[in-house]
Amino acid sequence: MTFAPAAAFTTRPTLRGTFGMSASTHWTATATAQSVLERGGNAFDAAVAAAFVLHVVEPHLNGPGGDLVALVRPAGAAEPVVLMGQGPAPARATIDHFRGRGLDLVPGAGGLAAAVPGAVDAWLLLLRDHGTWELGDVLAYATGYARDGHPLAAGAAATIARVAELFRDHWPTSAKRWMPEGTPPAADSLVRNPTYADVLDGLVAAGARGERAQADHAQADRALADRAQANRAPRDDRAARIDAAREHWMTTVLPEAAAFIAQPHRHADGADHPGILDADDLATWRASFEPAVSTGFRGWDVFKAGTWTQGPALLHTLRLIEDSPDLDPSSVEGAHLLLEAQKLAYADRDAWFGDAGGAVDIDALLADDYVAARRALIGREASTEWHPGSPEGRDPVLPPLRTDHAGTDGSTGEPTVDRSGQTRGDTCHLDVIDRWGNVVSATPSGGWLQSSPTVPSLGFCLGTRLQATWLVPGHPASLTPGRRPRTTLTPTLVSRGDEVIAIGSPGGDQQDQWQLTVLLRMLVGGYSAQQAIDAPNLNITALIDSFWPRTWVPAGVAVEDRLGEQVIEALEERGHRVRRAGDWALGRVTAVGRGADGLLWAAANPRGAQGYAAGR
Questions:
Q1: What residues contact 437, with CB distance under 8 A and at least 6 apart?
Q2: What is the C-alpha to C-alpha distance for residues 488 and 44, in angstroms, rounded to an integer?
């Protein structure tokens, strides 16, 4: 099997060293993570510090009111675990409630689409169980940037300009927060969020109060206990401080946000609705760890989160293509195969993935006989069908299938790449590996500044992940109180013996598609990480968009023009509806890892001139 030769020139080097590596979608977060490593923190301390910085410096792509999925592998562990930071639908989030408001889809913007925010609690759980630093030290970076200021990213400035009218006319608290002078700020303007800095300070203070309360409680217990009980060591104070901060966040901070969005406000459907998230929803949920799912691919183990994410679609795709003689995304046959295989994998995602009951069993999805039957459907011509299978012999509950949907007002859907391939934005991703072998791959998202009105007393807004649910009963991704919406967030961890790759990308439905091309070029084509990330990318749009207004493009494909006229024209001749996105538009991949030689490495996406890697 041959691949197109890797480009001799790369936009930056694949970094190599022995101490530690960090990569993310924003240079400030990468620098933060590396600073923590330099000061003796481990990969998990570094990831948490960087994540809170991302809330501040990429507010159009994620926020503290959002969610996250991460793969976490402590040094010496054979397999990673999933850090689950996706909160469920509120108790009042029923299909009947939404239908009763005249809705056939969950709106893409507005508080009615808010699930329980999971990001902050998940990051604090990671810090408690696997980090070493104190909470105040970890949060100091984000607190400093929020209070003292940071240059506004060009993408954030463009986003604010795009929703300026919505802010002025309907979301005045967002206008005050993001347009204090009455007009959208320019790129690189120094912006501050002292209100959110105060919230972070409040978390640290809550931790200190919680520690004192625990000490007082322990003292009272000892006075009543016998000598053996009195000599028993109290719980670790650091863990108690972090748990107290978690409790403060979930029971004091977030209920304030829920109360604010309970007031009717403009949503993406053009109507005003009150939010339905309340304090009881927040009091009964906490982030957690859960097992990863995996498959083998040419000697490597590939790990993902479960079918409450879109992650297993990558595993399914790898199974469909693993025996092919041509896996080069830059060849006609390789590109066609990847596109057609992903149509089948994502049709199964759209039919069978979710958390609401009836989701496919991962073993059935990856079973040899089912994979063979699906592989046999791939032909020479581009399929125009949406063709889910029946991996367990059941007929799928079909969601609505539409190519357009009218009725847009204000902010809509996820800030990702649109159907023409034009970049509107993305979400965030970060990877860290340290000298001890701890590694994390994390994709935080949601709660971006255009999600819903800014809570004026907190300086951030809530997310809109419920837009990924269906208002039809019986589907695995149906809106169901207490169940998680199926998320697009899908970090990846790949290992073979002592070798490991932590990789991920923003990009909504494209996240795993962009990772797929990078992984194939690395694992099969022999490219370095930076060569693979730089290489021309492509993805299908022939799937049901996970974000409002939930449309699809039959036989749709987006490609970077650098793929070449010969390949693009050949794809068009086979029936693919190709949209050319420009030379450098598709893909936001970052990655870190450890090679067979024991050296650590890192690489980051150059598109958008924002992602960066650092290390030594």
A1: 75, 76, 594
A2: 23
